[in-house]
Amino acid sequence: MEAFILAGLQLLPLIIEAGENAIPLVESMTSIFQGRAATDADWAQLHAIEDAARAKLNDKTRDVPA
Amino acid sequence: MKAFTTIALISLLLALGLAACSAAPSPVAVVFEARSGYDAGPLNGMEAYSQIVRCPQPAGTMCSQQSVVDSMRKGDASAKAALDAAEDTVRNQPTVDSSFVIAAMQNAIKAVVAIMTTYSIPIPATNTTATVN
User: Å from B2 to nearest chain A CA?
Assistant: First the structure.
């Protein structure tokens, strides 16, 4: 359990950096929830950011064989 | 006096109407918010974790467990399918009741959050109002 907590603390800088990458998305989202309707461009931006993140998540270069 | 009362009544009704609108966002807005929140939060956290070198590593070196990464990938694949289904419904089939696909989407996101919580993987906080209940 302590190892997990330690890992979580060590991850914080990475998480903060990842969160900063999402700032444009959050700004767009905030605007939409202040009354602006989501446009096709908003969805496209969302998909682009999501696809980039998913590509990194599914990147196998660091994987170890089962 | 009657005019004042009428104006006050209309203002009150307008305010109530606006409050009702703000209390119930459209299905499109709900899905956009959920998808944005998922991308900015859990997906970013999973991405960051998966980018760390895999364990085992020398003591004191940060590493990620392959089994955890595998679990997160499966959870994300499920979440993506649910998000896609919900988005397709609210954007392309506006006359269809979207409550079920939205519920499925929220459950899939909850599953991902549960995986991350189990392994104490931080989820980036955003200033979104997105919540997963």
Answer: 34
**How far off is chain B from A8, nearest CA to CA, in Å?**
5
Q: If you search the block for the tokens 């499109």, which residue do you land on?
A: B28
Say if the Cβ atoms of B62 and A11 lie within 8 Å: yes
pLDDT tens-digit series, residues B69-106:
999 999 999 999 999 999 999 999 989 999 999 999 99
Report yes or no: B66 at the A interface, CB cutoff 8 Å: yes
Asked if A28 lies within 8 A of B36 by C-beta distance, the reply is: yes
Residues B112/B72, Cβ–Cβ less than 8 Å: yes
pLDDT band at B57 (very low <50, low <70, confident <90, very high): confident
CB contact under 8 A, A19 and B125: yes
ipTM of the shown complex: 0.75
